[in-house]
Amino acid sequence: MVAKALLFGSNGQLGKTLIAHYQEQSSEYSLDCLRLDKPLINYPGPSVTDGLNIADLAQLCQVLNQHQPSLIINAAAYTNVDKAEIDREKANVVNAEAVKVMAEWAAQNHARLCHFSTDYVMSGLSREPLIESYPHQPMNYYGYTKSLAEQYIQQSGCEFLIIRTSWLYSQYSPNFVLTMAHLLRYKQHVFVVDDQWGVPTSATFVSRYTLQLLQAQQQGIYHVVPSGYTSWYEFALKIRLMMSKQYPELTLASIEPISSRDYAKLQQEKYQVAERPRYAILSNTKLATLLAKKIPDWTLAFENELRLFKLF
Ligand SMILES: NC(=O)C1=CN([C@@H]2O[C@H](COP(=O)(O)OP(=O)(O)OC[C@H]3O[C@@H](n4cnc5c(N)ncnc54)[C@H](OP(=O)(O)O)[C@@H]3O)[C@@H](O)[C@H]2O)C=CC1
Ligand SMILES: Cc1cn([C@H]2C[C@H](O)[C@@H](COP(=O)(O)OP(=O)(O)O[C@H]3O[C@@H](C)C(=O)[C@@H](O)[C@H]3O)O2)c(=O)[nH]c1=O
């Protein structure tokens, strides 16, 4: 019998990429996808159930009881880091309370839970790449809710796989690459922070390793990021370089480095900028050791994938 997997957040950048990978791989799981409320137009994917708001915890329970999945994959989240500072109730229920419901349901029904988490559970005070057991100390409300979710999962007693990743990009907005491409195309100058460090990771990369870890029946926490690291400023320069190669006819904005503090001041009339960790470099040593191979540098995936993107 084919076991059932249930994917939450199938309309997000990771959700969409996961579906594409899932279809390429033969899997022992059939996949049902649940999404908030917008129909997927002409999407040749697996069956899609519309209208599920995971913030409605009673409805979430009902859906789990109805579908009886053996594997829950949760790619749904409230991901607007700045807005989460003021929209706290919603961020908390989507990112933490709904995950608690999923984890407890999984524990009671002998299902597995695969959940995605973030570098933003960390404080950024370390100067060494962060291993999976490094203590949480979130600097913003989004990070706090994601940290809470990790704790709920571990307390629930369910069989779980938590994939922590960072600085996700894909052909689907919103993400830093597409935002930057737009700004470079339509502005004259762009200011980008040069004092926050992390690992840009493509949604394709995360999807590929997530399926490998699931197929290998792995449990616990894994950092799924490529090797190497950069700052947002250097990342923006790299995006600009790729764009200038792809679209030599375009005049692109110049990029100026700025400190996080000055960037927040610059934006303060428009919105409140959430604090971000300065040094959020996740170590992928555990993943590399499991797979017995060196994980390639982020620049390689970036250069290969950006050629396939429609940037604007
Ligand atoms: N983006 C990043 O840089 C990083 C993301 N992560 C984590 O990876 C995971 C996937 O992120 P990503 O794909 O980038 O996020 P997206 O914002 O692209 O997608 C999130 C999805 O969650 C859905 N969603 C939000 N609220 C609800 C709700 N109340 N009920 C049902 N669905 C809801 C959204 O639905 P709709 O489209 O209908 O709004 C969307 O499909 C998240 O757990 C995130 O925390 C980790 C590290 C980095
Ligand atoms: C658009 C823009 C951003 N920035 C800064 C703000 C911030 O410090 C940094 C990144 O900005 P963004 O808002 O695009 O990205 P941000 O929302 O901080 O990205 C995070 O998303 C969540 C979901 C995660 O889990 C993290 O891993 C991380 O990817 O760059 C500039 O300096 N200039 C700009 O023009």
UniProtKB/TrEMBL annotation:
Cited Gene3D superfamilies: NAD(P)-binding Rossmann-like Domain, UDP-galactose 4-epimerase, domain 1
Gene Ontology cellular component list: cytosol
Enzyme Commission numbers on file: 1.1.1.133
Top-level EC class as recorded in UniProt: oxidoreductase
Free-text comment on the cofactor: Binds 1 Mg(2+) ion per monomer.
Biochemical pathway: Carbohydrate biosynthesis; dTDP-L-rhamnose biosynthesis
Catalytic reactions on record: dTDP-beta-L-rhamnose + NADP(+) = dTDP-4-dehydro-beta-L-rhamnose + NADPH + H(+)
Biological processes annotated in GO: dTDP-rhamnose biosynthetic process
Lineage top rank: taxon: Bacteria
Sequence ranges assigned to domain RmlD-like substrate binding in this UniProt record: 4-304
The protein's required cofactors: Mg(2+)
Record InterPro entries: dTDP_dehydrorham_reduct, NAD(P)-bd_dom_sf, RmlD-like-bd
Phosphoprotein keyword on record: no
GO molecular function, a single term: dTDP-4-dehydrorhamnose reductase activity
Protein name: dTDP-4-dehydrorhamnose reductase
Annotated organism of origin: Pelistega indica
